[in-house]
Structures are given as structure tokens and as C-alpha cells.
Amino acid sequence: RARRLARNRESARQSRQRKKQYLELLEEKVTVLSEEILSLRRAHLETAEAALRGLRDEHLQGLERAAQRFRAQAQAQAHAMSHQGGQHFMGNQGGGVPMIPSQAHEAELASGLAALSERFGPNCEERRAVSGYQFEQLWSELLPPHVRFLLWMMVQPESFYGAPDAEGGGGASSNVRRSPPGARESSALWPLLCRELSLTKEQEERVRQVQRRLSTNPLALAEQRSLALLSVHLERLHTGLRSCAKMTQDKWNRVKDVLTPSQMVAYLSWVARNMDRLQQGKLEESIVNATLHASALHAARTGGLNHEHAGGAGGGGGAG
Q: Of the candidates 94, 104, 42, which has an alpha carbon nearest to the alpha carbon of residue 70?
């Protein structure tokens, strides 16, 4: 019987060892694959803007060739009708008026412009992914997760860290199982962390002392406020970029409503051919200044309307 028990124990030990090795192998594979996916994603997103610009130019060139073909077809049709003495003469009688493609041709160009906007526009899904990735990188560089967690711990009250165990137990980590079922999740976080790190009572007390000093240290509080402001400004910048992309897309749609599809293709082709000259003329700077000016006017107008509504409500309350 003793030998059988010994064999069973040895078999169980070997089984646990095999499971442990298998889990370690899986964890290693997950780590390697995660790093590979992250590296490929980073490489893709870093070159996504140039790739999008190249694909957009190819798509636009295809639309320009289609528009030229449609104009040539319209000219040939008008020329044939003029020779036949037709009444619906669309030809150019020396006035320099370009041929206008038919409605079917315009519909085809409109479909191509819609695809151009959806796939390569300023607010397309790929550009939003690139913007989100870039801000994730900024966040990870300026405020890594462990720094954010430490900042969060700094502003917690002393009750968050729990009182030292008077019974001589294991400190906060020994209170995990004694926590009531309805306890707040944040209050149970510190015991869980102590248990995960296997902190001793002395180490827990040292952490409490450091937290007390930091909570009254003016330099630490100033750094904390600076980091908080940094996070706020980063979030505002990200929100502003998304708003600018949406505004640019809306302006694209308004221009598209004014011009015909063939005129829109001609306009975009002209911009692409003269991009160097437009950049030398500080076009982007003027657009940014105009956008900031329009945003300021909109904010002032909205604030004025809110003030008037508040004044009207106050006046109504006074009259009542």
C-alpha cells in the first residue's frame, strides 16, 4: 500500500510538472506571437499614411482617365451629330466650351468619388486607426500604465491601504478573504496587490509611510498636477484632431454638392498637380489659421447664445 501511495504521489508530481512546463511553453508562445503582432501592426500603421496617399493618387488618376475618356466620347458623339445635321448639337462651335459627359458617365464618376472619400478621405477608418495608434504611443511614452496606476494610488485616502493587522496576521494581504462581499472594488485592490507581490507587514507599512509623505509633499503634488494636465491636453488634442477630420470631410461633401462629378475630378487633379506650389504658399498654415478662427467664432457664438438663454431664464424667473 505504501509503495502504491508513493507511486501515485510521484505520478501526480510528474503530471503537475508536465502541466507547468506546458503552460510555460504556451506563455512563451503567446509572448512571442503578441510581440510579433505588435511589431507588424506598428510597421503597418507607420507606413499607412504614405500607402494611403499612393493608393489615393492611383484612384484619382483612374478617375481622371475616365473623365477624359467620357469627354472624348461626348465630343465624338457631338461631332457625329453635327455632321448629320442633328438638332441636339453639343459641339464646340469655337467658343472653347468643353464637352459635358452624359448622366451615366457622371453617375460613374460620382460612384468613384464616393469610393475615394470612403477609402482614402480625411475621416476614413484607416486614418482614424493611424491617429489612434499614434496617440496610444504618446500615452505609453508619457504616461505608461504603471505610472498612471501610481498616480491613481497617490490620490487614494489612507483607508484605501487598510489598517495594520493588530492580530499579527499577514497585513492587508491576509484580509482578502475577510473582505465583505459588497466591498467596493477599489478597496479590495490593495490587499490583492499585496498578496500578488507577497508583501510583508513591514513592507506594507513602508508603502503607507511613503504615501503619507507624498500626499503632503508640495513638489510631488505639483508633478501630479502637471501630469494630470498633460493627460487632459493629450485627450483634447486627440478630440480636436478627430473634430478637424470630420470638419474636413463635411467641407469635402459641401464642395461635392456644388460641383459636378467631372468638375470635382478636375479640381482634385489640379490640386494634386499643383501641391508643391500650394505648399510653398503655406496653404496648410492658412487652413489651420482659418479653422482656428472659425472654431473661435463658433465657440463665441455658442457661448453668447447660452448666455442669452441663461439671461432669459433668469428674467423669466424674476418676472414670476
A: 104
Backbone angles phi, psi at 262, to 5 degrees: -65, -40
Residues 6+ apart with CB under 8 A from 215: 154, 221
Query: Is residue 43 packed enough to be buried (19+ CB in 10 Å), middle (13-18) or exposed (0-12)?
Result: exposed
Encoded amino acid at 254, one letter: R
Can you tell me the distance from the alpha carbon of 58 to that of 165, in angstroms, rounded to the nearest whole number? 70
Question: 152 and 263 in contact (C-beta within 8 Å)?
Answer: no
Residues contacting residue 291 through CB under 8 Å, at least 6 positions apart: 244, 247
The pLDDT of residue 206: 87
Place of cell 452624359: 102
CB 99 within 8 A of CB 74: yes
Residue 190 CA to residue 196 CA, distance in Å, equals: 10
What's the rounded Cα separation, in Å, for the pair 123 and 127?
6
The better pLDDT of the pair 174, 109 is held by 109
Does this model's pTM top 0.70? My answer is no
- pLDDT of 5 over the 50 cut: yes
Q: Three-class SS string for the chain?
A: CHHHHHHHHHHHHHHHHHHHHHHHHHHHHHHHHHHHHHHHHHHHHHCHHHHHHHHHHHHHHHHHHHHHHHHHHHHHHHHHHHHCCCCCCCCCCCCCCCCCCCHHHHHHHHHHHHHHHHHHCCCCHHHHHHHHHHHHHHHHHHCCHHHHHHHHHHCCCHHHHCCCCCCCCCHHHHHCCCCCCCCCCCCCHHHHHHHHHCCCHHHHHHHHHHHHHHHHCHHHHHHHHHHHHHHHHHHHHHHHHHHHHHHHHHHHHHHHHHCCHHHHHHHHHHHHHCHHHHHHCCHHHHHHHHHHHHHHHHHHHHHHHHHHHHHHHHHHHHHC
